[in-house]
Design goal:
Strand order of the largest sheet: 9-10-21-13-24-11
Radius of gyration: 26 Å
Number of domains: 2
Shape: globular
CATH architecture of the largest domain: 4-Layer Sandwich
Structural class: alpha+beta
Mean pLDDT: 92
CATH superfamily of the largest domain: Clavaminate synthase-like
Largest sheet: 6 strands, mixed
CATH topology of the largest domain: Double-stranded beta-helix
Distance between the termini: 32 Å
CATH class of the largest domain: Alpha Beta
Length: 383
């Protein structure tokens, strides 16, 4: 390893399996990542610095390598000394490289014949999280077909994501249970969508347990929206980019007049959300809950942009509605389905007869916090 001072940064050249590599490390970044007892509380993995004088502390007096040439030793002008093991500091600081799959297995009707299933009797959080991260869906079988048992199962896995719908719901089309002003409480067909697009903190995981199946119909249709977005990107890159950049609003209104009792709204969110590397992180797709599109102006180019958005939205919707991109299942008592609401769209066919369901939302942040220890390094750094 070689190091060379470049005013306020270090040029570090080191060997890797793929050959020689170079990184430019600003001194302020190195001082900020010092893990000495003075600057870092190891038992809690928290920094001690308040950053009020970080730049003045980041002036070096002497920079050397240890005897093995594997660690950088910096003596700072304030008398403090930092030691950085090169492998560790490179792992912390190097810009992530784009990866296509991130441990996800994108699917359609042909590539995923059935939803991954786990028996309640052999359930482990590792197996549960592995399937949910990989496919965005998983079913736990052999659950007692009651709302109480379902709620207990969910609470034992991940904390509930509470909303004004309540922490846990039991609902049917009979009107015997509390109902909100939403088509989910009827028996008509509902197309593919994600839930809670009108929340700024979108519910992360959707849970359903069918306690009493309908006489006919009521099937659940699942769509991997990440795959649909990839199809759109391949077929029409400009339309894909439009859905990544144009921001729209969604709302949920109750009362008379609408919104007088509940008015939930999420403003300026894209349909396709990506990270800085272009990886898709969330799809917000719900044609039904879109709020008025406030986009009109006196500009002809502005009107053209509005039309382009609708063209892109329609193309994406057609892909999501394509039967070849969906998986249809019949939910049954004893089987609880968990759906990644950031990725997998769900819909329902129309049905006849009495149908009773229960379910809830689970916290995706809390799920990922518990799941990451079971995921590989190349997966969890992107999730």
């Amino acid at each position: 390893m070689n190091i060379r001072s470049k005013n306020d940064a270090l040029e570090v050249i080191f060997d890797e399996n793929t050959g020689s590599s170079k990184l430019i490390m600003p001194l302020v970044w190195l001082r900020d990542h010092c893990t000495s007892e003075k600057h870092y509380h190891l038992p809690t993995n928290q920094r001690k610095s308040s950053c009020v004088d970080l730049l003045n502390q980041s002036i070096s007096e002497k920079i050397t390598l240890d005897q093995d040439g594997k660690s950088i030793i910096i003596d700072w002008v304030d008398g403090h000394q930092s030691i950085f093991e090169i492998g560790e500091i490179v792992g912390k600081g190097r810009i992530r490289k784009k990866t296509k799959e991130r441990g996800l297995e994108l699917w359609d009707k042909e590539t995923l014949k059935e939803v991954p299933r786990i028996s309640r009797t052999t359930l482990s959080f590792e197996s549960f999280s592995s399937s949910l991260v990989k496919y965005g869906i998983v079913i736990i079988d052999d659950v007692e077909p009651t709302a109480e048992a379902t709620e207990t199962l969910c609470q034992g896995l991940v904390p509930v994501h509470d909303t004004f719908f309540g922490q846990f719901w039991v609902f049917s089309n009979s009107g015997d249970e509390p109902a909100y002003e939403d088509t989910a409480y009827g028996n008509e067909e509902i197309g593919p969508h994600t839930d809670g697009t009108y929340f700024n903190q979108t519910p992360g995981i959707q849970v359903f347990h069918c306690l009493t199946p309908a006489t006919t119909g009521g099937d659940t249709v699942l769509v991997d929206s990440f795959r649909c977005a990839q199809i759109l990107k391949k077929e029409s890159p400009q339309d894909y980019e439009t859905l990544c950049t144009v921001k729209i609003a969604h709302h949920y209104l109750e009362g008379s007049p609408p919104g007088s009792s509940i008015h939930s709204i999420s403003l300026e969110k894209p349909v396709i959300q990506t990270d800085s590397l272009g990886n898709i992180t969330q799809i917000r797709f719900n044609p039904y809950d879109r709020a008025p599109f406030s986009c009109l102006s006196s500009s002809e180019s502005g009107a053209s942009d509005v039309i382009k958005f609708y063209e892109a939205y329609q193309k994406f919707s057609r892909i999501c509605h394509d039967p070849g991109n969906s998986l249809t299942i019949s939910l049954r008592p004893g089987s609880v389905i968990f759906i990644d609401n950031f990725r997998v769209l769900h819909s329902r066919t129309a049905f006849q007869g009495y149908r009773k369901m229960c379910g809830c939302y689970l916290s995706r942040d809390n799920f990922m916090a518990k799941a990451r220890p079971f995921l590989g390094e190349q997966v969890k750094q992107f999730l």
